[in-house]
Structure formats: structure tokens, C-alpha cells
Amino acid sequence: MRHHFAVMTASDRRKVQVLLTCSPGWKIHEQFLRRCEQDVLARERVEWTVIPPEDTRPDVLAQAQVMVCGHFAREWLPHCRRLRWVQFLGAGIEGSLSPELLASDIILTNASGVHAIPIAEHVFGMMLMFARGLHRCVRQQMRAEWNRDGFREQVREVCGATLGVVGLGAIGAAVAERGKAMGMRVMATRRHPQQRPPYVDVLLPPSQLSDLLRESEYVVLCVPLTRETQHLIGETELRQMRRDAILINISRGAVVHQPALVRALQEGWIAAAGLDVFDPEPLPADSPLWHLPNVIISPHVSGVTPHYGTRAAEIFLRNLHAFLANDLASMVNVVDKQAGY
Questions:
Q1: Are residues 51 and 75 in contact, defined by beta-carbon separation less than 8 angstroms?
Q2: Active site annotation includes 281
Q3: CB of 67 within 8 A of CB of 19?
Q4: Stated pTM of the model
Q5: Is residue 335 part of a domain?
Q6: Which one-letter DSSP state was computed for residue 188?
């Protein structure tokens, strides 16, 4: 779908030129635009250009004052002479943060929060599969095997267990809230510990990660990938975890040192892992992770939801209202260019 620039009349000279570019395969742009069309200010003040990334030409980039995209290509920046703000459609944007973009005056906002509900539900899907032995049941079903041996010794309840959430952002908070609702004791780390929310029993700074690892039966990684969090979980951290602990990673694959994780799962340092992200992706066919009985693998789909476009539009519209009012302090999800998220 293309919305070409129109010649503006005196009544619409204050329209802002917004370039929306995302892969047609993502199939969220139509839902995104439908929600934006319902907003009076967006209807009156936005002139849209909607094209796939491969058709993003220099002349189109030169006109854009605002860009909405999944990824910002490094080669686009020299052509973006009018660009003031980029709204990313995802939360993890580390692949777009070139030195040139970070050094620019362009405002960057992400879609943090848009994934919170589906990812939290995905996390608990994995946790409950392990707790009730459903991962074993599925594998037995594929072999037409009726085998109840050992189930009494293997199953557990999440109620009363300790949940450790590493990174209490929007996703981490959604995981913690659901854990508390299910009767779990919730520990969490946060980069800037503030007042402890009611759904967290123990809130720690990142420097006390080891305390969380030693106590938690379920450890859920919810941190963004930055210089500080790359290989945050390596051999040392895996050996600090309980032998009955289950690691869930829905952040980025490189947050975990994958060879160390394979050893931990093979040698019983920890009990199991539910993995939605890997390093590299796609996970190579010869990875031992595919064949370990104590691993659940999903192909980086934890954030998928039929409501993605609408939720991303809500964030964009809130920021658009602030941007058009020149109230930049009210914009949400503004990326800290020093921290990288």
C-alpha cells in the first residue's frame, strides 16, 4: 500500500510527513493505520507514506519528518535531512543503533510494553509445561507411548515457588504480576531500583543478581541486549542457580552464553530451560539444544499477538500528540542513547 505525498493547500500546510516502513510479511501496518485513522489529530495532521523497506528511496527519506519502522538502516540517515523522530515498532532496537544515529538529535522511541501480555503468557506457558511434565507428555504422544513412570517425582506446583525476574521493565513487570497472582514468591532486579511494587516481594539492583539466582526455582530473563547484558548469564551464573531451577529466556539470545547453557543442561547444573531466543538465529540444525529432553524451544515468537498493530499505534499516537504539541517531555518510551534502550 502506498500513500503518495499530495500537494498541500493552505489549510493543511502544518501536516507532518510520516513515513511508515515495515516488511509486508509482518502484516501489522494495516491494523496500525486503522487505529491511527480513528484519532482526530492524526487524521488532521499526518500525511502518510507507507512503503516496504526495500522501496525506501532517498527522495522519500528526504521528505520524512517522522518515521515509523521496525529497523532503521544505517544508510538511510544521510538522506533524512528533515527527520526529527523515529518511532520503532519493536522494543529491542539494538540492531538499529548505529553510532551516527546515536550521535544525532533525532528522538528515538520504542514500542516497549506492546509485547508484555503475549510474552508473559508465553513465559507461563513454558513454566507450566515444565511444572506439569507436559513437555514430556508431548514427546511421548509423538511416539504413541503411554508411560507414567516417574511423574510423581517430576511434577511440581508453581504456587509457593520462587520466581526470579531479571529486568523489571514492562515485560518483566507483566511476568511478575502473573507470578504473584499464581501464589509465587517474586524476586526481581531492576537497573534503577525504585519503590518496590506490590507484586514483587524482593527488589534488587543488578549487582545482586547472584542472590536472585541462588533462591529462584524459575529464572526469567527480561533484560534488553546491551554491552552490560551480553552474556549476563554464563558458567558462573548458571552454577549459582539451584539444581532444580528452570531458566526461561525471552530477551535476546546473546544475554546467555549458549555453550555454557548447553553444558549446564547436559550435566545437570540446572533442571531445564525454555528458550524463545538464541545466538545465532535461526538456531542451527546441529545445535544440541534441539535434542535435549529438558529444553522447550520456540522460534522467537513469544511476542506475537493479533493485537500488535493496535498496541503499537497506541504508543505512537500518545507520542504524536506530545510531538505535535512540542511537549517532548511527555513522550513515552524515549530511548536512552547512552544505555542503548
A1: no
A2: yes
A3: yes
A4: 0.90
A5: no
A6: E
- What is the domain range of residue 203? 116-297
315 and 176, same domain (yes or no): no
One domain for residues 70 and 137: no
Q: Which of 45, 300, 318, 321 is catalytic?
A: 300
Active-site residue identified among 252, 257, 311, 314 = 252
Catalytic residue, candidates 37, 228, 281, 307: 281
Is there a single domain that holds both residue 263 and residue 319?
Answer: no
| Edge-to-edge strand ranges of the sheet holding 162-166 | 202-204, 185-189, 162-166, 218-221, 246-249, 272-275, 295-297
Cα gap 41→296, rounded to integer Å: 45
In the residue annotation, 252 being an active-site residue is answered as yes
3: in domain: no
Mind listing the pLDDT tens digit of every residue in the chain (341 residues)? 333 333 334 344 589 999 999 887 777 889 999 999 999 999 999 999 999 999 999 999 999 999 999 999 999 999 999 999 999 999 989 999 999 999 999 999 999 999 999 999 999 999 999 999 999 999 999 999 999 999 999 999 999 999 999 999 999 999 999 999 999 999 999 988 888 999 999 999 999 999 999 999 999 999 999 999 999 999 999 999 999 999 999 999 999 999 999 999 999 999 999 999 999 999 999 999 999 999 999 999 999 999 999 999 999 999 999 999 999 999 999 999 988 88
173 and 312 part of one domain: no
In a domain, 156, yes or no: yes
Residues in the chain, total: 341
Domain CATH code at residue 286: 3.40.50.720
